[in-house]
């Protein structure tokens, strides 16, 4: 149950289409569901505005399918499943409607909501190799009700490519800057944008990049104001945070 469902329930009570006792019973049943191997937090959507997200890595295909099915049965119509392969997406699709991004290894069960944020989330990558993390961020933001613009392969080794997209960056409500190697893109974007910049270091790079640690440290030490940093390869975390920022002024 999410905030929209709670509003509908309260509206039903106000209009006399549901009794107070029936509404109370539905709310009491909602806090969590014990599946034996997993405990669904059914009230997360009420508390935070976004339902629980299924992290697929380390879970079996059967476990993921059963969790998604349980959420669907309880009325959740947009379910995000991260870090899964095509075989898992296919298994989910046999029971539920699903749209899968193989590049981002992320699936949306059901239909994504309409974009109701106050502006646009712009996702920028340094290189093509960063696009898997970028798609995880972009699909996450879209599934949470945001308009997303993708600006890919515009890293600092060819700075003119990024400057060609200055207008999109300056119009953004939030920018997600994704880079591996030395991770300098976030500072450059932070020097152009007048909105929050969420930096995502990726594990892309040669030996001395230390699996993304070099980019992480560069981003943490950014000289540009307004740059925050999430963990290495954490596209989901960036997309989620961008959605929270983008919905603050819209009130949704």
From TrEMBL:
It holds the Pfam family AIRC. SMART domains: AIRC (SM01001). InterPro entries: P2CMN_synthase_LarB, PurE_dom. Residues 119-251 form the PurE domain. This is PurE domain-containing protein.
């Amino acid at each position: 149950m999410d905030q929209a469902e709670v509003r509908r329930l309260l509206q039903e009570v106000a209009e006399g289409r549901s009794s107070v006792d029936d509404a109370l019973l539905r709310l009491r049943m909602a806090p969590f569901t014990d599946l034996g191997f997993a405990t669904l937090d059914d009230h997360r959507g009420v508390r935070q505005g976004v339902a629980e997200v299924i992290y697929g890595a380390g879970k079996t295909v059967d476990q993921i399918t059963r969790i998604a099915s349980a959420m669907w049965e309880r009325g959740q119509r947009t379910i995000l499943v991260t870090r899964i392969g095509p075989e898992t997406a296919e298994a989910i699709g046999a029971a539920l409607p699903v749209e899968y991004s193989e590049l981002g290894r992320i699936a949306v069960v059901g239909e994504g909501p309409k974009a109701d944020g106050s502006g646009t989330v712009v996702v920028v990558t340094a290189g093509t190799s960063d696009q898997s993390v970028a798609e995880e961020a972009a699909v996450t933001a879209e599934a949470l009700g945001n308009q997303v613009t993708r600006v890919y392969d515009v890293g600092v080794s060819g700075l003119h490519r990024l400057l060609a997209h200055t207008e999109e960056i300056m119009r953004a409500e939030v920018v997600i800057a994704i880079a591996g190697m030395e991770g300098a893109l976030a500072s450059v974007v932070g020097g152009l944008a007048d909105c929050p910049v969420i930096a995502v270091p990726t594990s892309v790079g040669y030996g001395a990049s230390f699996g993304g640690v070099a980019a992480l440290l560069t981003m943490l030490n950014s000289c540009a104001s307004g740059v925050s940093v999430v963990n290495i390869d954490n596209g989901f975390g960036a997309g989620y945070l961008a959605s929270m920022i983008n919905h603050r002024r819209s009130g949704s």
